[in-house]
Amino acid sequence: MKGRFDFSHNTMTMSSIVEHLPSKQCGVYCKGSFEQIVQRCKPESVPEDFAAVAQRHASSGIYVLAIAMKSLPAGSSSAGAIMTREEAEKDLMMLGLLLFKNPLRVDTRQTIERLREGQVRSVMITGDAAGTAICIAREASLVQPGVPVLLGDIPSGEKTVSWQCQLEDLTAMNEVLLGNEWLTWRRNYKKWRTGEGRGARGEASARARRQKSTGKFLARTNSWPNTDDVEDGDTAQESTSEQFEFSTEELVLSRLFEWCELAVTQRAYEWLVNTPCTPDLRRVLLGSRRAALKKGQALSSGFGNSSLAFELLTSIRIFGRMTPSGKVSVVEGLMAQGLISAMVGDGGNDSGALRSAHVGLALSNATSATVVAPFTTNRNSVAPIVDLLREGRAALATSFAGYKYCIHYGLLNSFFKFKTYWHGIGQSMSARYLQDLFGFLGFSWAITLARPATTLVGDRPTSSLFSVFVCSSVVGMWVLNMFFIHFGMQMVMDHEDFEPFPVHLVQVTKWWKLSRNWETTTVFFLYSFQQFWSAAVFSFGHLFRQSWYRNLVLLLFLFTGFCFLIFLLLSEPNTLTRFFHLAYEPITEYEPWSPELPCPAMPWSLRLNLLLVIIGNMTACGVFENVIVLGRVGDFLRTRCRYLSKHITLRL
3-class secondary structure for 56-99? Predict the structure, then answer.
């Protein structure tokens, strides 16, 4: 081998300069995409039906490479060292096509369906031929059966994108065109072309004709077939795909992008990126999103100067013949519209997109993609992306559960402090250690051990710290707990043996003498039970995580904490009750209490009533979270708030 030109994504070719040792004859052998190789070959060496045969193979799901060569003049054995790529890859002789098929992975179709059930839109971005990509997309169920595909490309000698129907979709395309919407649009379209009226909904008005002289405008050519020519299925089968060729303006104004799947090549995508979207087309595209939403606002550029690629990007399913930079552009375009994007790839040409996306998953650990991708799998399958999404949604839901627990802890603690200051009381240090070390730290850690749900559901966890879901859950729980603290304190103070704590007899600096009284005992149990139980309540919900009772560590903490608190609440006076300064014995020798002003023992019946109040408190909090926040009331509120937000509804 005298020289070699590695594969270039710009030229889509790879060449080698070799020497035949016995004859000392040198030659150049080149392989690459058939569209690029044919441009570098002598016309007389290319069969007349070369392009049609290559496209037919590509459309059947076969990977197609073209091979060509040329002989170098005698005595050019050192040409490989000085020959440029342009010199080596010109005036070639076509040798033929190299065909190979990469079977679809067994679980790919199932994975796509699982993603669709999880409200995730899947698109294909590939460097292969667009025809091959469309065929594989059908096999993988990216394109639903019966839905026609329109391929956008720039034909040879043209400067604008033309959208063409595939041969296998002619019958389905006829059904789309012969619908009532199409007939209505066709009648109004004639009026629109002559400037007589606005035409069908969303179409350009006569005002658009005046804009033609002020800036770049798309061509208006109606190339659709007459309805009389495609009335029945037999005639439709005889029709050729050239009859079903549309301009970008026709694609938008007729709303064909709503009824068909779109595919583009790299050249078409670049043209869409560089072509501004006219106000008339933007109005149709934006109106289509609103119609799909039924409620809410569609996301648009908001500047009035966006490109066609920006407005059409969420309607394009397949991107073929894309270069690495093109893949990055598509991913960044989706992210620019506020969409959370995940990229799955297995080659070095996917590295840029894997790094740019919010989530990148490399399917092999033997390529450079693993260096830039945050996640890597050794499985030869795309199924791990479903597992990654399950884990991600579970992690987000769990993070918000921990966030709500911490916020609720702070709010509840503030009310707890208010009550203690109001009554002039204070807890013992042992009670504070129990609540902060075992309670807050222990339960905060236990919440994070929730496992993800086994299936990817068609919903997403909230991503806003101040969403209705978060605020209603925290504030509702806080209000309920405050009510039961006040109710429990009032019940105790209304008891006939209750003796208010004489805080006026205690010096301000002697805070450790504020804990032996009925008020402190009551608020200690109410606050502790609420703190422990809120960790379980905020772990409710089984959409993204397994049910809270499957979190064994959380269950262990709850069981241990509740058993210990119930034992303290209902037991007779003992070492532990004295350690926590519980008022279960008459107090006469501990300041400010005295024989003249004793603190009576808290009766067991009152403590039992306090336990019933605590049970009612926990029941109310659990019902509120399940029925209000996670139930139909919460769904209604989230739907109403979604009406006020900007978002996109995608065809899955």
Answer: HHHHCCCEEEEEEEEECCCCCCCHHHHCCHHHHCCCEEEEEEEE
Same domain, 276 and 423: no
SS3 at position 438: helix
Domain count, the chain: 3
538, burial (CB in 10 Å: exposed 0-12, middle 13-18, buried 19+): buried
pLDDT at 532 (0 to 100): 97
The answer to whether residue 534 sits within a structural domain is: yes
* Domain edge (last residue) among 322, 352, 372: 322
Question: What does the DSSP 8-state code read for residue 372?
Answer: H
If one compares 146 and 171, the residue with the highest pLDDT of the two is: 146
- What is the SS3 assignment for 155? coil
Q: So what's the pLDDT on residue 485?
A: 96
Mean pLDDT across the stretch 150-174?
83
DSSP, res 595: S
End-to-end CA distance of the chain: 50
Do the domain assignments include residue 545? Answer: yes
- Claim to verify: residue 80 and residue 150 sit in the same structural domain: no
Cβ neighbors of 620 (< 8 A, separation 6 or more) are: 480, 484
25, 145: one domain = no
Is a pLDDT exceeding 50 seen at residue 219? no
Q: What are φ and ψ of residue 71, in 5° steps? A: -90, 140
Range name among 74-83, 278-287, 346-355, 613-622 with the lowest pLDDT average: 74-83
Boundary-marking domain end, from 306, 322, 338: 322
Strand partners, 5: 15
* Cβ 230 vs Cβ 177: under 8 Å: yes
Under the banding of pLDDT at 50, 70 and 90, the label for residue 76 is low
Same domain, 617 and 478: yes
Nearest CA to 577 out of 640, 494, 516 is that of 516
Which token pair is 499?
Answer: 């003796």
One domain, residues 189 and 47: no
184 and 282 in a common domain:
yes
Q: How many CB atoms lie within 10 A of CB 571?
A: 14
CA 224 – CA 222 distance, rounded (Å)? 6
Q: How far is CA 57 from the centre of its chain?
A: 35
Residue 345's Cβ-count burial label (10 Å; 0-12, 13-18, 19+) is buried
Q: Find the domain containing 444 and state its range.
A: 390-647
140 shares its domain with 93: no
Residue 385 forms part of a structural domain: no
Distance CA 274, CA 309 (A): 8
Check if the beta carbon of residue 425 is closer than 8 Å to that of residue 86.
Answer: no
Instruction: Give exposure, 502-517, as e/b (b: 16+ Cβ within 10 Å).
Output: ebeebeeeeeebbbbb
Instruction: Report which DSSP code applies to 233.
Output: H
